[in-house]
Design brief:
Length: 248
């Protein structure tokens, strides 16, 4: 198993150092701009980087965000300092064909792994805010406890970091940090799936458009039954190339 520290170092050496100018451009516009395109090729032939990115994308992308924060300091960026709570999108593109699936292929074995899928945009919801960091008031000591929200299901604090009580906690909606988010649906001949988009991908696509997604399939649970719905969390999304260059 590749350690988190090793992953952070791989992000720095394989991805961020060769793209120092792009990272600088991101930092200059941060926090308005929060996304960086990462061609999968940058993993090179390093199996100890590409395998965790495909099989454990949550942990590997988290290491990438930590590495970006470290690299920003290395660049001596005074503005655009990235805090671990900041949401940054590492938009991995061009994942290998081994993880390309049709929508109907996707099943439980793909949950929380990286996949590439294609489909036609079938529906587009109105964009809205989604909580990136939620603030909770500890009912015991009344201090505010913030909890990073990596997914769409609200995470609550385990223990209060001020008084160590394990709750109860009250959500303080006006202390939340939000990002732009949108749900769309994509379909192929056999299946339609919901796709969660955030930040620069919001409002980027319209109904009827063919798109290619690098995504993480998630099981959406309603909290009542044990039956979930499969949906996709977009890592990157691009209009499909309608006139692909023929292979030489
Ligand atoms: Zn407390």
């Amino acid at each position: 198993m590749v350690s988190d520290r090793e992953l952070v170092d791989k992000w720095r050496t394989h991805v961020f150092r060769p793209a120092a100018d792009e990272v600088r451009a991101l930092l200059e516009r941060f926090p308005d701009r929060r996304s960086l395109t990462v061609p999968f090729d940058r993993c090179g032939t390093d199996y100890r980087f590409s395998a965790p990115l495909l099989e454990q994308p949550d942990r590997t992308l988290e290491a990438g965000r930590a590495a970006l924060g470290e690299f920003a300091e290395e660049l001596g960026a005074r503005e655009g300092r990235i805090h671990p709570d900041d949401r940054v999108y590492l938009r991995v593109t061009g994942a290998p064909t081994s993880v390309r699936h049709s929508l109907s292929d996707l099943g439980t074995e793909h949950l929380n792994r990286l996949v590439t899928v294609e489909g036609t945009v079938a529906d587009v919801d109105a964009p809205g805010p989604r909580v990136a960091v939620a603030g909770f008031r500890c009912d015991h000591c009344e201090e505010l406890v913030s909890v990073r929200q990596p997914g769409r299901f609200l995470r609550r604090p385990g223990r209060c970091r001020h008084c160590n009580a394990n709750g109860p906690f009250t959500l303080e909606p006006d202390r939340a940090t939000c990002v732009d988010a949108q749900t769309i649906a994509i379909s192929d001949d056999d299946r339609t799936l919901a796709v969660e988009l955030e930040h620069d991908l919001v409002d980027a696509f319209s109904i009827g458009e063919e798109i290619e997604l690098v995504a993480i399939p998630r099981a959406r649970l309603d909290g009542e039954t044990t039956t979930g719905t499969l949906e996709l969390e977009a890592v990157s999304a691009d209009p499909e190339n309608e006139n692909p260059v023929p292979a030489p």
